[in-house]
Each structure stands twice: as structure tokens, then as C-alpha cells.
Amino acid sequence: MSSTQGDPGRRFLTLPDVAEILATSVAQVRALVQAGELRYIQIGGRQQYRIEAVELEKYIARMYAEADAKSGSRSSPADGAR
Fold it and tell me: CA neighbours within 13 Å on the CB side: how many for 21?
């Protein structure tokens, strides 16, 4: 199973890797990339995207912050894990 925490030496992730981590489809990850919501680099040919693990973590943190702002909550993601 791919994971940014399970493989600390891995810097770049493919779209399928990101889809697995986020439990979503490759098409949804591609849409996030193409909309500019998830930072990426393009390697070689068309749609050969790579997402740096740190950028995925930033995206996740941003999504938590947006969800907290919508709900009026100020708790961190770790607070809800108890």
C-alpha cells in the first residue's frame, strides 16, 4: 500500500498513488491537478504528473482548514482521532 508515511524515502507520487491515499479515483485526482488545487510537476509526455509528498500533505491540511472554517470548528485533525 502506498503511503507518504509508510515510505518516507519516496518524494514523488503518481496520480494512482495519490488516489489510493485519498481513497478517491485517479480521475478525481487528475481534476484536482488540472484545476490547480493540487500542486504538481509534469514529467515528459502528456499527463505524466507527479505530486510531491509534501504538497499532498499541504493539500490535506488545507482541506481540513476549509472544513473547520465551514463548520466553525477550531480543532486539529488529530483532536478528532481520539
Answer: 19
